Amino acid sequence: MQSNGNESRVFRIDRFVVPAAAEAEFLSTVTETNTVFDAMDGCLQRHVLKQEGPTGHNTYITIVEWASIAAIQKAGAAVAAKHKEMNLNPQELLQRLQIKAELGNYFPVAGKSV
To answer: Which of 5, 52, 83, 98 places its Cα 20 to 30 Å from the Cα of 21?
Structure first.
């Protein structure tokens, strides 16, 4: 089987459970932070998805597809600089707004397609 060229790609997938009262500030912060990716080489696509919850908490998933590990490493540095410019401490924001977060990088499984 030939390689489809996806093996070097990296997906940053973050999941946030956000109380309704915190949504406006959360979305504003995500939107401003994501502007960093627009000019970055290696950013293949990005999405912010929402699932409405029955308990007044909604779940947001952010997905950014990167062309390589090197691209996502540069993105990490760019996001850190953007957060500094915004005077933002992400951990403090999550704690203050009572947002539960699961953050991680995911890689395609070699030779598998659905």
So the answer is: 83
